[in-house]
Amino acid sequence: MGTIAVLGAGKIGEALLSGLLKSGRAPEGLLFTERHPERSAELEATYGITGVTVEDAAKRADLLVVAVKPQDIESLLDRLSPVLRPETLVVSLCAGLPTALFERRLPSGTPVVRVMPNTPMLVGEAMSAVSPGRHAGPEHVRTVTELLSCVGKVVEVPETQQDAVTALSGSGPAYFFYLVEAMIDAGILLGLPRAVAEQLIVQSAVGAAKMLDESESHPVLLREAVTSPAGTTINAIRELEKHGVRAALLAAIEAARDRSVELGRAHED
């Protein structure tokens, strides 16, 4: 992969740098950009990685990971375009932004791979979906897959499915956090101390996720295994269905998909 530069060392950018170091990558082969000097100094002290300007990163890196907020992309591309070498692989972690935007603004022929990761990257359990742009070939996809495998699992999808991926797994952790928050509140309502309710629910979530990951059974079968006739669980499921929880979740994910589409359209010429 040569030298890798992460443009935008926020939480996701830092998590990727940390994962690369844990996978055996030498600090000398990594660079990052950060607008705030105090934050840059903190990252240099923590990881031993050099903070540089966007222009310097473009000149020195063989692979650029763009991890800035979508609203900051225009100014970043303005700085990158005059100095980027055409053979440099550009990896976008920017939600909603199509590869066509980068291809239009960067030197002709620049290979771009779009990625939708999620925040479990912070604990090495990300789910990332990758999509190659027009100038990115299988070798570029393999490089990006190798890059992201150090912080979780990776799947390749057509770029037309990236907005759906953003809504499902990109935003997905927030849905689980929301559900856990509500269940902890329910425990408090039933008379449990907050600390006890939190421990019960968080460990239940961890265990359920592990069962889903390791079992070959469909989620419906795993749920049915907990649902005894005339028991407590089926009564709870009846209330969830009565209040339209399934329909609300479907609508919520569709709304997230629609917003991802809007973010991409905002940068169309």
TrEMBL record:
The keyword Amino-acid biosynthesis applies. Catalyzes the reduction of 1-pyrroline-5-carboxylate (PCA) to L-proline. Gene3D superfamilies: NAD(P)-binding Rossmann-like Domain, ProC C-terminal domain-like. This is Pyrroline-5-carboxylate reductase. It comes from the Bacteria. It catalyses: L-proline + NAD(+) = (S)-1-pyrroline-5-carboxylate + NADH + 2 H(+); L-proline + NADP(+) = (S)-1-pyrroline-5-carboxylate + NADPH + 2 H(+). GO terms for biological process: L-proline biosynthetic process. PANTHER family: PYRROLINE-5-CARBOXYLATE REDUCTASE, PYRROLINE-5-CARBOXYLATE REDUCTASE 3. Signal peptide: none annotated. Transmembrane segments: none annotated. Its main location: cytoplasm. Keywords: Amino-acid biosynthesis, Cytoplasm, NADP, Oxidoreductase, Proline biosynthesis. Belongs to the pyrroline-5-carboxylate reductase family. Its EC number is 1.5.1.2. NADP(+) binds at A67, V68, K69, P70. Residues 3-96 form the Pyrroline-5-carboxylate reductase catalytic N-terminal domain. It holds the Pfam family F420_oxidored. One of its GO terms (molecular function) is pyrroline-5-carboxylate reductase activity. The keyword Iron does not apply. It is found in: Cytoplasm. InterPro entries: 6-PGluconate_DH-like_C_sf (IPR008927), NAD(P)-bd_dom_sf (IPR036291), P5C_Rdtase_cat_N (IPR028939), P5CR-like_CS (IPR053790), P5CR_dimer (IPR029036), Pyrroline-COOH_reductase (IPR000304). Pathway: Amino-acid biosynthesis; L-proline biosynthesis; L-proline from L-glutamate 5-semialdehyde: step 1/1. Residues 159-263 form the Pyrroline-5-carboxylate reductase dimerisation domain. One of its GO terms (cellular component) is cytoplasm. The gene is proC.
